[in-house]
Structure formats: structure tokens, C-alpha cells
Design a protein that fits this description.
The chain is built from 12 helices and 10 strands. With 343 residues, it is an alpha+beta fold. β5, α7 and β6 form a beta-alpha-beta unit. 34% of the residues are buried.
């Protein structure tokens, strides 16, 4: 009941009133072994929550509001608070994106540690230069699911060359590539020549890391065509490398069957739930997971059915009570390069 705003005292008194709706202060205090003042203060809290009200028949006494309406009102209040939190998160995300955009456009953005490139030819040239110059490893986050045939064709010689030179080449794709034969075949081909490929339900952003010394990320994850940032600063590249390693350890080899966990969410369901809780629309959820909007809506509907929820807000509140919360897109649209990194 704490999820509805009831503290232990309030819940104890409310349960007594459910059995004895007209119990008075003295009766409640005696039943719980409390001082009268504690019982009265708790009744005042329940009145503030509109779970009890003044009796029309017995002045000075309180009576229980019909639990069906009283508890529904509390749940609705929690739903509103959840909606406000989702809106606050969405606003914060927009603010961060605007700040990063301003940073990318500022005169200080073009430094030895941060280089900004726009235009598909310039982006493709940087990917090719860094790929051919890599000496030990190339690590890739490839969100967006299916990669374009042009991107896969451009990436093949770069990946082949890197593997032949003895580099460790690792890709993390979205689980949804199993629905695209071309991308799935590319992942299998990569493994056959000595590279590695794993998959997860969702990825934080598109990026490529070379030798843990240089990284490519999109200027704006939600507007990939704006261009890329080439990062050389030790601090930020080390952080991105740690993010890649953590994500890699959580991912499964492409083609592996994820064992079902009874009474738990599937990886895709967990990803959808987390994204909905963050305030994303169906369109954004679908794009992040590399699935159709129809699939995203189907998963959402199945989650609401499992939770027996009548609204998304109520589903969020119920998912919180079950402890289910827990645990940028392409570098550039259409850019040639690594394994569809320019999708």
C-alpha cells in the first residue's frame, strides 16, 4: 500500500475500518495498542487522502468512503504523478539534446579532442580512414535494426580487412535484425570470418570505437543526418569503451535462443516497458528497438493485459509494484562505412 501513499500506520487503521467501518478513535487505539493521539493523527491522514469522511449520521465521527472509489482515487493520483515524472524526463532529455547541439555548433567544438563532420562523403571518409588505421580493435553499436544494403556492401571490405589484419572486430546489434535476412546474414558472415556479433533488445546510441582511443558518435542521436563527432579525449573514449564492454557482456551471440524466465519479462518486453516509463511514444519505442510501430503497440498491449491495467499510467504504477523497472540512432543516414553504421 505504500505505492498508493499509505504509510504503515495509515494502512493498519484502514484495514481495521474495512472490517469495522464505523470504528471510533478509542476502538482503533485499543485494537492496535496505540495511544489515542496516534490513532487520531492517523485518521486525519486518511481523511486527507479522502479514504474516510465525516459521518452525516453521527456528527464528530468518521466513516469509510466506499473503498472502490477511495482506492481508485489514490491510484489515479499516483498515475498523475507518474505522468508528470514521465513528462519531466522527456523535458530533461530535450534540454540535454539542445545543450549538446549548442555545444556541437559552438566555436570550441572543433578541437584536437573533438572534430565535427557533416555530409555523407566526409563521414564515409572518416570511417574509412579510422578503420584502415586501427591496430587492435573495432567495436560497434549498430541500432536501428535492419541495415541498408548499401551500408552493408560498403562495410564488408572494411571488416574483412580489419579481421585479416588480426583486429578484434565486435558488433552489438538489435535483436530485431532476425527479421531482416540481409543484416542477419551479414552478422553470421562476420562471425564466420573471425569477427564477433551479439544482440540486445535496445542500444543506447550508435557509435564506433577504434583501439579504445578514438570514437565516432552522432552529433544528435535523434537526427542522424546532422553529422558525426570524432572524439579523441581519453576520458570520454574510456567511458564509451566501458559502456560498450558492459553492453557486450549483457548481449547474446546473434542467433542464440534466449531462455524464457517464468513470471518475468522477456528482454523485448523489459525494453518496451523501460522506454514507455521514460515517456517515449510508440514511434520512438519502435525506432529504438528496430521494430514496427505495430509490434511496439502489440507488446505494450500484451504488457497491459498481463498487468490487468486499463491505462498506460496504471500499467506503469502496477509494474513498479512488481519491481519490473530495472534493471542515438545512426551515425549518419545512408553514410557508407562499418557494417551499416551509416544506415
Amino acid at each position: 500500500m505504500s505505492q498508493l501513499g499509505l504509510d504503515p500506520d495509515s494502512e493498519s487503521v484502514y484495514r481495521i475500518l474495512l472490517k469495522t467501518p464505523r470504528a471510533g478513535v478509542a476502538e482503533i487505539a485499543e485494537g492496535l495498542g496505540w495511544p489515542t493521539g496516534r490513532a487520531k493523527a492517523t485518521l486525519d491522514k486518511l481523511a486527507e487522502l479522502t479514504l474516510i469522511r465525516n459521518s452525516s449520521e453521527e456528527p464528530g465521527k468518521m466513516c469509510l468512503v466506499n473503498p472502490e472509489f477511495g482506492l481508485a482515487s489514490l491510484l489515479h493520483r499516483q498515475e498523475q504523478e507518474l505522468a508528470q515524472r514521465q513528462q519531466a524526463l522527456a523535458t530533461a532529455r530535450l534540454t540535454i539534446t539542445e545543450m549538446l547541439t549548442e555545444y556541437g555548433e559552438g566555436p570550441s567544438a572543433q578541437t584536437d579532442d573533438v572534430r565535427r563532420y557533416t555530409g555523407l562523403d566526409a563521414i564515409g571518409s572518416q570511417i574509412e580512414r579510422l578503420s584502415h588505421g586501427a591496430e587492435s580493435s573495432i567495436e560497434v553499436f549498430a541500432p536501428r535494426g535492419a541495415q541498408t544494403p548499401e551500408a552493408l556492401e560498403a562495410a564488408r571490405p572494411l571488416d574483412r580487412s580489419a579481421v585479416d589484419r588480426g583486429l578484434r572486430v565486435r558488433y552489438v546489434y538489435l535483436d530485431s535484425i532476425r527479421n531482416d535476412q540481409a543484416t542477419l546474414s551479414y552478422a553470421h558472415w562476420l562471425r564466420e570470418i573471425g569477427g564477433e556479433a551479439r544482440a540486445l533488445p535496445q542500444l543506447p546510441l550508435r557509435m564506433i570505437i577504434y583501439d579504445r582511443r578514438t570514437a565516432i558518435v552522432p552529433i544528435d542521436p535523434e537526427a542522424a543526418a546532422r553529422g558525426i563527432l570524432v572524439l579523441n579525449g581519453a576520458g570520454v573514449v574510456t567511458a564509451l569503451g566501458s559502456l560498450f564492454q558492459l553492453t557486450w557482456e549483457q548481449a547474446q551471440p546473434v542467433g542464440a535462443v534466449r531462455p524464457p524466465v517464468p513470471e518475468r519479462l522477456s528482454p523485448q518486453e523489459q525494453a518496451v516497458l523501460d522506454l514507455l516509463f521514460e515517456g517515449h511514444t510508440d514511434d520512438v519505442v519502435a525506432r529504438r528497438l528496430g521494430v514496427s510501430v505495430r509490434t511496439a503497440r502489440r507488446v505494450t498491449a500484451e504488457l497491459m493485459t498481463r498487468l490487468d491495467a486499463r491505462s498506460r499510467f496504471q500499467a506503469g504504477a502496477l509494474a513498479m509494484t512488481r519491481g519490473w523497472f530495472g534493471a542515438g540512432d545512426a551515425v549518419a543516414e545512408g553514410a557508407p562505412g562499418r557494417g551499416g553504421n551509416g544506415e
